[in-house]
Fold this sequence. Notes:
This protein is of the alpha/beta class. It has helices at residues 5-10, 26-36, 53-64, 69-74, 76-81, 86-102, 124-141, 161-170, 194-202, 217-226, 254-261, 270-276, 287-292, 311-322, 326-339, 344-365, and strands at residues 13-19, 105-112, 147-155, 176-182, 208-211, 231-234, 242-244, 250-252, 266-268, 297-299.
Amino acid sequence: MTPTHDQVRRAPKVLLHDHLDGGLRPQTIIELAADCGHQLPDVGGEPTAPLTAESLGRWFAEAADSGSLVRYLETFDHTVAVMQTGPALTRVARECVEDLAADGVVYAEIRYAPEQHVGTGLTLEEVVAAVQEGFDQGVAATDGRIVVRQLLTAMRHQARSMEIAQLAVAWRDRGVAGFDIAGAEAGYPPTRHLDAFEYLQRENFHFTIHAGEAFGLPSIWQAIQWCGADRLGHGVRIIDDITVHDDGSVELGRLAAYVRDKRIPLEMCPWSNVQTGAAESIAEHPIGLLKKLRFRVTVNTDNRLMSQTSMTHEMWSLVEAFGYGLRDLEWFTVNAMKSAFLPFDERLALIQDHIKPAYAALREET
Ligand SMILES: O=c1[nH]cnc2c1ncn2[C@H]1C[C@H](O)[C@@H](CO)O1
Ligand SMILES: [Zn+2]
């Protein structure tokens, strides 16, 4: 049975891949830009027309809708610019939690790059503390309906990954659950940050790597086999190692087989991939085949502002494109919860006590 849009919204959802600086409310950007004197982009229209949350939101979506990861990433200049003080970071983090809880998200790992928020003198420590303060406020405001953890990202074209990895480990018992690298993929392979990944492995810490989004199999191979990534950010290009024959039979190459055999989670972000050109459309997105082949697929938002999306919108788009039912959405959700950087007993409790009973109750409605 096809769920209704309202059921998808009420269904518990788990989000592993969402950027803090890609999810601001447009109105908040306008207010924070006024506070810090940041010049927002010319969004077009009448020269004298005031900038509105709606026109700014549209500008982000259109500018990001470029077919190129590099151009997509340029839009972050305007969000990062208004996130340079403790109060601004706390506000953005609090609103992020409120928005996710309202969307039915019960567990979220939110990532951002601390090194991008030290432009007006904050220390890396102060950045992480300000974000954690916002997350704590957001969780309290939603009566604990959501559990949230930070992932600290290092920018792959910069050279601060070891420092950020050490920062993440220092905060491991205070709200930081993992580490990541992000930014333009072509020209910046994961092995550029091998020392940071080796350090994290020695610390028994968790990390994911953006790989196989704008660049193909060599990036995925390095992320897993050289760097030891626990999960893949996107990983959508693993499809290049899968052959579908005319008779419908499917052949996995050695890397694709390894990813599936080892149950390596794929943090798929369908709408983001359509915007950056990694997929033609939702209906043609490799998630359909990868799910059929039982890869460990999860569904994510990446950047809610740039893609004008939410977990409900991503899930609903998959329902429309592939005819998924509540059991499929539950499968994605349990996959994500199993893949979270949270201790095993806490993951299990969320699955058994929360996610499964809620999906069973939703199925009863139909
Ligand atoms: O999808 C993405 N691929 C690579 N890098 C990304 C993506 N979305 C956001 N980023 C970058 C831009 C942000 O400023 C940074 C930290 O969140 O991560
Ligand atoms: Zn991302």
